[in-house]
Model the fold of this input.
Amino acid sequence: MPKVKKPVKKITKKPVAKTKPALRAVTKSPRSTLSPLSVPVFGIDGKPTGKITLPKELFAAKINNVLMAQAVRVYLSNQREGSASTKTRGQVEGSTRKIYRQKGTGRARHGGIRAPIFVGGGIVFGPSPRDFTLEFPKKMRRAALASALTSAFGEGKMIVVDGLGSIAKTKIMANSLQNVGVTGPALLVTGRGTEVGTRSARNIDNLDTLPAQNLNAYTVLSHQKLVFMKEAIEVLKNFFMSKS
Done:
């Protein structure tokens, strides 16, 4: 008898419900979401007297650790004088004659008293005057400063004080800094028209003073506390945020 083929059941796949792809969270750039940075301003008695707005370009910038390290290297390199100098055996004073005969003395053979082996002789591979200066473009220098200021602001290392520029006594200046919480090494950033307060502060231990227009990444990173005179904030806005 002929074989009868069994009917094959068709397997139909159930339609899979299409799911919408998960929407990715749209994040805006940090600068676009930043609100004006308002920080309290303290008086010389340690009490808040108001608020001041900090420039976002300097205190809310993107932190670039590599650029800050490069700025520190350039700054320290540019502080080197490169004035170390030594003389070779051809430059020191002394006779050129052979100090004793070649053979028969039982001593080592020598040709001159100016050899490096003798006291007063020349120096082998000694240092000579050189220039250690490194170039650092203005845009990179300002970006490194912005990274350093942003890092200090995020760590709570900076404070803005009003009234320090008119203090004429070192003792009053020291007491005012203690009132605002400065008890250790600190950097006082001064503004224009604050020469009286600058002279009062320069004799205080562990306190360095620097005009705002001379501020750099190294000085910001090398101090535990940054004290800004209120006048210094305007100098930062005008000097470092200009296109020139």
